[in-house]
Structure formats: C-alpha cells, structure tokens
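Replying to the earlier thread about multi-chain prediction with a worked example.

Input:
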Amino acid sequence: MGLKIQNVSKVVGGETHLRQIDLVFETGSRNVLLGRTLSGKTSLLRIMAGLDRPTSGKIIIDGQDMTGVSVRKRSVAMVYQQFINYPSLSVYNNIASPLKIGGMPKKELDRRVRETAEMLHLEGMLDRIPAELSGGQQQRTAIARALVKEAQLLLLDEPLVNLDYKLREELRVDLQEIFRKRSAIVVYTTTEPSEALMLGGNVVVLDEGRVLQTGATAMVYQRPETLRAAEVFSDPPINALDSAVTHGGAVMGDNIPVPLTGHLGRLADGAYRFAFRSNHLWLSSQEDGDIAITGKVELAEINGSETFIYVHHGKSAFVVQQEGVHPFSMGNEITVFINPKHLFVYDTAGQLVAAPQATGPSNRRE
Amino acid sequence: MKIQKRTFALLFYFVVLIVPIYWMLNMSLRSNADIMSSFSLYPSNITFENYIKVFTDPTWYSGYINAMIYVSLNTVMSLAFALPAAYAFSRFKFLGDGQMFFWLLTNRMAPPAVFLLPYFQLYSTVNLIDTHIAVALAHCLFNVPLAVWILEGFMSGIPKEIDETAFIDGYSFPRFFFTLFIPLIRAGVGVTAFFCFMFSWVELLFARTLTVTEAKPIVATMTRTISATGLDWGLLAANGILTIVPGALVIWFVRNHLAKGFALGRV
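Result:
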C-alpha cells in the first residue's frame, strides 16, 4: 500500500528534469523532498499529483498503475509555493470547494469546513475574500482547502517560502501537529535542512533530478552518504578540506594535524576529504582535543542573530556559523576550533567513509 | 498660474471636440426651412418633428433595431469563439501557436474593402444576403482576432495554478471555466464586448453591402437617404444624434473596466 514511483524520468525540451527516480512512500508517512532550487522537487511533485506525465516510468498507487490517470480522478491535494486561492470566492467557499464538487451534504460540509478553518485559525475570516487577507492567512486558506478533502496524497510545494520568518515558524509548528493526525501520504518539499529536520519523517535528498539518498530524516542528517548529499543537507553547505592519512596520522588542509581517535581510528592510509558543518566550528576551544584551524576572514555576514564568517584557509575556504553578532574586519587572521569527533570523512570520490557517532544532544543547533 | 493655463487648454480642447456634435444637435432641433434660411448659433424655434419622424416612420426606426440585432449577435458570437481560443493561446503550448496568434492579427491588416466582393458573392450563393446573421458573421472577421488578443492578455494574468487547483479539487473543465475562470476575467470580457460592440456599430462598408432592406442598419439608411429625399438636414441630424447615444451609453458603463484594460496594456 502506498505510492510507488517506478523508474520515472522527465525530459522537457531536451533538458532532463528527473533521472530514473525510484521511490516508495508508505501510507501515513511524512516525507520531505529536500533539494536546492532546480533539483527537480516540483517536477516530481507535479508528476505525483498527476498534473504532468512522466516521460518514462510509472506511478503506482495502492498497486494500481495511475500514470496516465487524470488529476480529477485521483485522491490528491496540493498546496503551492504561491498563494493560490479562488479570488472570487469567500474563504468559506474556497475551503468548501472540493467538498461541494464531491457532492457532500450541506450539514456535513459545513461541519468539516468549520473544523478545518479552526485548525488553521481562520474562524474569523470565513466571509472575506482572499485578497482581503494577509499572506499568511491566504496560505492558511490554501492549506485548509487541501486538508479538508482528506485526500490520500497531500502534496506541499515549499508552502512556507513566501512567508515572513515569524509566520513561517508559526505555521511550521501547526503543520507538524496537523500532519501527525493525517493518515494520508504527506509529501513536503523544501530547500531548507532545518525545515526537513523539524518535520521529521523520511527525507529524499534530490540533486539535479537524481535521488542522492533516502531514509529517516535524522539518520540521513547524521550519515549523509555522499559529500553532495551532505552539502544539500547543511545550511550553509558543509565544509570540506582535502586531507591525507599516512602512518597512523592525519593531516587536514594545510598542515593541521588531526589525531585519529574515535570514529577516525580505523582509517586506512590515503587521500580523503574531511568535512564538517559550520555550526560545529567555534571561535574558542570548547573541550579537550579540539583542533585549531587558522585562516583569513574573507567576509562576515550577519544574518538575524547569527554571524556567518567566510574563512580562507590555503586553497580552500569554509564558513563558520556563530551565535550572536560578531563584527569582523576582512583580511584578519582568525583561529577557529573543531572537535575531531564532528568530522565526516569522505573519500576523494565523495563517498562516506566514516561519520561522527550519532549522539542526540551533540547536534546542538538544528 | 499653471493650473489656469491647463484648465484653459482643456476647455479649448473640449470646445473643439464638442462643436460638431453641438452643431448637429442644433440642426436636429430646427426645421429644414429654418436651417436653410438663417444662420443661428442656437435653435430659436425648437421643434421635435425630426425626432418624431424617426420614431414613427419604420424606414427610420427599423434601422436602429436591425443594427442592434446584428451588433448583439456579433458580440455574442465573437466572445463565444474568442473565449476558448484565448484560453488555448494563454494556457497551452502547441505547434505553431505563435504563428497562429500572429495570423489572427493579420486578419486586421487588410482593409475590409478587399473582402467585400468575395463576401458578397459567397453570401448570395448561400442565400444569406439581407440577413442579420450575415452582417454579424462578416464583422467577426475583425472582431474575433481583436477579442482573442485582448482576452489572451487578461487570461495570461491569471496564474495557471488556479486552473490546476480547480482540477485537483475535482472541477470539470466547463464548470471551472464558467464558475471560476470567467468571473476572474470579468473586466476583460467587458472590455472585449465593448470593442466588439463599437466596431460593429460604426462599421458601414459590410453592413451596407450585405443588406438590402430587411436588415438595413441605420448608418446605411442615412447614407442612402441623402439622395432619395433631397437633403433633409434636420432629419439626418436627429439620426446622427440618436446613433451616438448607444455608443455613449456603452462607454459610460464600461469606463472603469476600460481603464483597467488599458492598465494591463493589451487594449
């Protein structure tokens, strides 16, 4: 039972949007499609909805081949990135629209609409038209319309992207609550790793129309199998420095000795890429065993209450994420610290060799 | 001082525009003898006999009725053809869509006189001469392309996702089109209907050639009467005034939509 995507490809005007995708979504599961823009998230979603036909491959729902079936005959609901509502209908009628088409009795319809509206805090605005609502309320209306019909497949295409920060946080919390109660397959696309982690469930990491990795969201975050997957699943992208292991010792970047302890202990001699997330870097030594990396400040960017410091180290560069506002002047020498237990090890082809031990609380800021 | 200058300029412009119409009104309220004998800036002996004649003599008032009939027919037909066509152009990509859209517009590039002879021949063959539908059909030649052009602009302003959402919700295409989509482009439909009305109402060449007596519109009656009854100045002036009225009324009703249409850049 569930939805199966079999060897699906999509080519538009000679450009490949999706490459041989094979995925299975179980009924009642929450799934996040994570990928950068143009990674094929929306293309895949539209094919799952039945709005587009795949160039090749099959969509199988509950054991039935639904590839060519019109979207009208499927049990699907979709929320777009833009706020899409029927501008001429009131909020009430917007939410009621899928039920009315289904021919639901008035009483039952009224109950369902009011229940859904309450769930999304729209009770007071049922008589207004969408143009009279704020952006957040418009998107809530669109989500309510998608929820009210209790479709088997609920698709959300970056629904929170066009909202301001505060609204996004609010809706995100609400959505988690709502998804938990659904028996439908929920598929949610996002570009933000933090959003994926918050929603939990399963994650599909997409890149350039290909599936990089699938699995439980937290698991994939802790063990990205390829460097590319790790880059997609980190914001800012994970940093990687060329490294080498020789005679029981490791050197990272330009002459930074790394003790081969813990999960690094079993590395064979050879060339590697050591990778670390920006939030595991510190401006001062945090605990014993931290190693120091020196570099030159290229740029310091203050983003909200965080500072992103772009550091040049030899031929490579990395980003440090720091809580708080720290003014830095360009070109200054800087020393940052990382504990080897947070290092990911990839081989030169980008395949995971060793990942840090998964200890829940050590992922301090996600 | 600047504002006064501008007011003066506008006033001057307005006077220049209104003089011919005022002169027509002036003439329509005087008798023929009065018009011919004396020059007067305003009618001193007001008479409504010209208007009474128009409203009582069927050769005159039937002209208005005929014109109304084929203009309404044409507006309905143009919209009926143009709405689906414009939807296709705005929503689908198909082989030669750009060329086809341009081809539609080229229909407006030839002067109507070019089509006069083939139309007359064709319409007489199928016995359509002197019917309302003949004129309405002929006017579709330049009204349908214009309607498609205007409506396509309005439709392309509506996100495609609204269509998709409706289909996901389970709407059938006709139900979506008539209950959800048309209300969204109401202004566009209004502007299009206005243009169809206007072109069809003022068009003389086709209307005169394709009609004899049964469907003869007022504009044709007016041109033919000049020679038939001598120069009946007062009567013609009264007809002129009455012919302006429907156009003015329609403009009054769609003026807000029209402004919106101009703002969208397709009118």
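The domain at 56-264 of chain B is CATH 1.10.3720.10 (MetI-like fold).

Feel free to reuse this layout for your own posts.
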